[in-house]
Task: inverse folding
């Protein structure tokens, strides 16, 4: 089943053409999937079907303890956007509505290894010496 | 050094209650700094740095 509508698929396909390096969507769900877990998996499958640069790995939140620890996953559904390394980007819940574009943008940044941030911002962030955990709460508007 | 989570507030009501999410976007940095709304880049980084001071 496809979560994305035809128009969205077109949008995604067009934007994923900007990917220059492989991107991995690491999805955490569980054997008996909750409604949101199921939708998150279908969304990941949809996205990866639209670009040869995108692969998916699916792990079980209960059974795959090693991976849960490795990625420090706190709840499900969770999607890690990973490029040549783990950049620390996680989406908890289904990224729909506006957030759907956020996930695509994140994939493009991770793939290309660059962001639209200013040099000043990059320098300031590079100079951080303590761990920073940013949590952004959103709703599907 | 940096972890960024996007959290669907409605799907995780306990977490949203814990951080008193009444409007979105709501940003929480290291438990110590919280703010609502879309901040310009410079101000956002100010908040990140404030959180680790």
Result:
């Amino acid at each position: 089943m496809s979560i994305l509508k035809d128009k969205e698929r077109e949008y995604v396909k067009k934007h994923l053409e900007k990917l220059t390096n492989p991107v991995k969507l690491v999805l955490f769900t569980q054997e008996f999937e909750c409604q949101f877990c199921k939708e998150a998996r279908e969304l990941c499958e949809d996205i990866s079907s639209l670009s040869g640069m995108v692969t998916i790995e699916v792990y079980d939140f209960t059974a795959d303890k090693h991976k849960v620890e490795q990625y420090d996953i706190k709840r499900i559904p969770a999607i890690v956007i990973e490029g040549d390394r783990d950049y620390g980007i996680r989406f908890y819940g289904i990224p729909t509505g506006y957030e759907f574009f956020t996930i695509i943008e994140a994939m493009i940044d991770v793939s290309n290894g660059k962001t639209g941030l200013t040099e000043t911002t990059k320098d300031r962030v590079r100079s951080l010496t303590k761990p920073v955990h940013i949590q952004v709460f959103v709703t599907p508007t | 050094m940096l972890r960024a989570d996007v959290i669907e507030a409605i799907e995780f009501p306990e977490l949203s209650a814990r951080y008193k999410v009444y409007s979105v976007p709501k940003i929480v940095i290291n438990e110590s700094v919280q703010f609502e709304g879309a901040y310009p880049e410079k101000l956002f980084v100010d908040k990140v740095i404030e959180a680790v001071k």
